[in-house]
Amino acid sequence: MSTSARVRADACPGVFATHDAADGPLARVRLPGGAITDVRLRALADAADDLGDGALHLTSRGNVQLRGVTRPGLAARLSVAGLLPSPSHERVRNILASPLSDVAQRLAPALDQALCAVPELAGLPGRFLFALDGGRGDVAGEGADVCWRDGALLLDGEDTGLRVAAEHAVEALISVARAFLRARGTAWRVSELSDTAPLLRGIPGESEEPRTFATNPGLPIGPIGDAIGVAPVLGRLTSAQARKIADAGNAVITPWRSILVRGPLEADAGLVTDPDSPSLGISACIGRPGCAKSLADVRADAARIGRSPRAHFAGCGRRCGKPAREHVDVLATEDGYLVDGAFVPVGALARTLAQKGSAEVKGQQ
Length: 365
What we know:
Number of strands: 21
Distance between the termini: 33 Å
Helix content: 10-25%
Number of domains: 3
CATH topology of the largest domain: Sulfite Reductase Hemoprotein, domain 2
Structural class: alpha+beta
Shape: globular
Strand order of the largest sheet: 6-7-8-9-10-11
């Protein structure tokens, strides 16, 4: 683990403290565990239409961002809908949960409630991330500071060897968060601590030799029993699409910018339901014109790409929204892109990524 520490202020946006983007204020709405009811999803869709740009932008932490929020009233709307249970804690309610795990989905609201019940935890950095993995290895690989994985306790993705039963999982994660606050100094993340042993003191459980767990990130796209996995292109869910999902029932927003819809979805919803769709492998930051720092309209360029290995298009060196798992790094420059560090003109992007995809397939054979 790195021993470096952050020295600038944590400026993660929320609802009360928005980010001043080029296309207007950006508000981030936390959805612990990703679960959202049909009523709350409609409330977000209405807010996007009435106050923002008419879309819900999914994030790599299973949250939702509203962009261009130039009209007042968002906090009041979300409070009425039950989406802001603790104004003091709203930026620290960062909780991932395996979308297909009943145990993880059950523990997520319990962890959220316990988190909001501890006043001091409102002081956590906005980047501190909890995860509850039911054993599939899906969210365990998403860069959480502390993760309960079907009994195993992980710090910064590494198994500590400590084993905690499900009934004590929430207590253990809250204990780690409180210990992190005491030990953090100026650190934002567990990875920035030189010694993580103090984070585990006093947690009841059994100890065994730490293991290396396999990860299996992602939500299956297509039918999943009585539910269906879908994805909006580049994580942009229009308000109309959100309402169609709400008509189908409750849903879970995932950290892979996909959605588990727990009911029958209209066939014409305009969402990706084919697991072989080329767009599933590509993600992108907002780019121009939404971000003043971006050097290109990365979403327009990404939309012109066909078959590709997993790739993330970034408009600047901050690489906002990049996935935690392995991917091709596509970074904008003034006159083209750096693809894994090598310059590629815009006109050659599709061919270059297709070649990388072919090489990846050959390497797996």
